Each structure stands twice: as structure tokens, then as C-alpha cells.
């Protein structure tokens, strides 16, 4: 157990819908990273937040957004869902903002878009 | 942007043999290279990392080597055990305004036969 929690574990929804994935980092970690893992694209970095502020952006679609709240938990919002958005979404947390300290991954949320 | 190629996609070895996974990267400015292990149905876990100012790093049965000139790095696992069976991902990253954003290889499925 990494200490990072993600909810829900599984999510099944329809095309065009909107969902919110939630992540709670390890105690003391200020950075939260979101990743998407799919068979097509592999593992991809989406976005990083550090202490409430967006820090870095990767291949995140405009239909996706995220935020980090004052208690440091983070939410990833996916809207106008398409079949291709079906994937495993991981968040990870680390102490610093650099990304070169160990990132601890959560168990992931499996999103299925029908 | 950065492109990371990882080979082989599947590697099958006998218990006790060595396993080598190779990655090449395209961005000569990349200077941080983590390796992750992902067991079936589980989260990725950092197993070792190397920075560009070091040519080799070892941690018990695992070692990583880096050739900056050729822009490739490799993971070496000696005395493989069945519990080493997993998918291994390499990543290359560089400092982008204070954050290291990883680009991942497509993964190598390592199977260790007892």
C-alpha cells in the first residue's frame, strides 16, 4: 500500500458524460500527478499540481481538467467522454515539485466508456 | 517532443538468468531516467532511477546503465526470480520549469519461468 488513495476503483459510463476521479496523496506529499494508461497510448503523463497550483502539463485533452484543493486532494474531471477515453487513470504523489523524488502511485481508477 | 523506444516488448527467461531491457530516447536534454515495475493489476512502482551525471547505478540485483552519447539506457536484472515477472517501463525526462515530466516507453513484459 503506497498511502495514495483513489476513488472510485471502477467507473462505467456512457459517451458524452462527465466524470470526476478523486485522489488523496500520501500524508506530507505536496505534489499530485495524473497519468493515463491505455493499450493504445501506453502510460502518459497528464498534469501535475503542487501545493494547489498547476505545475506542469502533459498530453491532457481540453475536455479534461484537474484541480488540487487546500487539503491537497486532487480531482480529475473528464467531460464529453469518448470511447477512446476508456483507460486506467493513476494519480501519484511526491514530496517535492521536481518529479525526481519518488512518485508513489495510487491503485488507479478504471474508466470504461460505453 | 521526447520519444522513448523500449525493447523488447516481451522477454522470457529462466529463473536465475539475467534480463536486460533497453530504451533509447530522442531529446538530448533529458537527464533523469526512472524505471517502473508494474505487476499484473497493480500500480507502477519506482524500482531504480539514474541521472545523467552518472553512468551506472546498482541496487542489489538491479542495475541501470546510461550512455548519454548514444542516448540509450538499460535495465539489468540478475539472478531473476519468478516474482520479477511484471511489466517494466522506462521513462526519460528533463527539467521543464522546475518539474521533470516523464515520457514513458511502451513497456516490457518480463516472464520468469521457474
Contiguous low-pLDDT stretches of chain B (5 residues minimum) are: none
Q: Could you tell me which chain pair has the largest interface and how many residues each side has?
A: A-B, 21 and 23 residues
Shape type of chain A: globular
SSE class of chain B: mainly beta
The coarse silhouette of chain B is: globular
- Summarize the amount of helix of chain A as a percent range: under 10%
Structural class of chain A: mainly beta
Annotation, overall tally of beta strands of chain A: 11
Radius of gyration of chain B: 14 Å
List descriptors.
heterodimer, A: 114 residues, mainly beta, B: mainly beta, 5-stranded antiparallel sheet
Structural write-up:
The complex is a heterodimer of chains A (114) and B (114). Chain A is mainly beta and 114 residues long. Chain A is 0% helix and 53% strand. Chain A has no helices and eleven strands. Chain A has strands at 5-7, 10-13, 19-24, 31-38, 42-50, 53-57, 64-68, 74-78, 87-94, 104-105, 109-113. In chain A, the strands form two sheets. In chain A, strands 2, 4, 5, 6, 9, 10 and 11 form a seven-stranded mixed sheet that branches. In chain A, strands 1-3-8-7 form a four-stranded antiparallel sheet, with no helix packed on it. Chain A is globular. The relative contact order of chain A is 0.34. Chain B has strands at residues 4-7, 10-14, 19-25, 32-38, 45-51, 56-59, 62-67, 72-77, 86-96, 99-104, 108-113. In chain B, the strands form two sheets. In chain B, strands 2, 4, 5, 9, 10 and 11 form a six-stranded mixed sheet that branches. A five-stranded antiparallel sheet of chain B has the order 1-3-8-7-6, with no helix packed on it. By secondary structure, chain B is an all-beta fold. The radius of gyration of chain B is 14 Å and the shape is globular. Chain B contains no helices and eleven strands. Chains A and B meet through strand 5 of A and strand 5, strand 9 and strand 10 of B.
